[in-house]
């Protein structure tokens, strides 16, 4: 009788380690799939090619929190525009010239009923340029505009022709670039299918009437959906394994 009980107990004793090993294997597979999905999303979405908007001060450049059409700078302000490829405001390239109102507007006298805005326009580097285009040299200009003028008004007074997209996205300053408008760029520098970013979305690119620049640096919606699907499949697999072994 004791021998039968000993023989019967062996499968029971070894069943728990097998169950734990099976669950661990399933969880490792799920984790690997999640990491693969996240890695794919990061490699495919590197950033956007766009004109970013900056506000200058004695301490340097700060990424503007509003679009240039909403900003009403005071007399003596310095505004900057930089063309480059970036994912969001955290890695956006600043204008390569220091903000200096006195130097930029030295030859533009003050006038009654007007204000002077110093502008730094930096078309960026050849690495950021669309295929077949060469960025012009960075330049500065002093815009003398009405007292209620916006930063966009100041830019238009000194940097025509400007080009805007159908959603009020600022696509070109002084004709550069000749084509494209806030397109998404892959890790190798190529435009991702020529897609134009939606200016109202958190990942929008470019300077618009109501805002500017991509604000989010996290995974895209497609990546998150993929991760969720993988997790659900993993949970279902664990549940099915438990029912079979129960």
Which structural traits does this protein have?
alpha+beta, elongated
Give structural notes.
The protein is of the alpha+beta class and 246 residues long. It has helices at residues 2-44, 101-104, 151-158, 221-245, and strands spanning 47-57, 60-63, 77-86, 114-122, 139-146, 163-164, 170-172, 183-185, 191-196. Strands 1, 2, 3, 4, 5, 8 and 9 form a 7-stranded mixed beta sheet that branches. Strands 6-7 form a two-stranded antiparallel sheet. It is elongated, with a radius of gyration of 28 Å. Mean pLDDT is 75; it is low at 40-45, 192-205 and 214-225.
Helix-strand blueprint:
Elements lengths: L1 H43 L2 E11 L2 E4 L13 E10 L14 H4 L9 E9 L16 E8 L4 H8 L4 E2 L5 E3 L10 E3 L5 E6 L24 H25 L1
Parallel strand pairs: 3-4
Antiparallel strand pairs: 1-2, 1-3, 1-8, 4-5, 6-7, 8-9
Q: Point out poorly predicted stretches.
A: 40-45, 192-205, 214-225
Structural class category: alpha+beta
Order of helices and strands: HEEEHEEHEEEEH
Distance between the termini: 27 Å
**Number of E-state strands:** 9
Separate helix tally = 4
Largest sheet: 7 strands, mixed
Radius of gyration: 28 Å
Strand content: 15-25%
On the 0 to 100 scale, the average pLDDT is 75
Helix content percent band: 25-40%
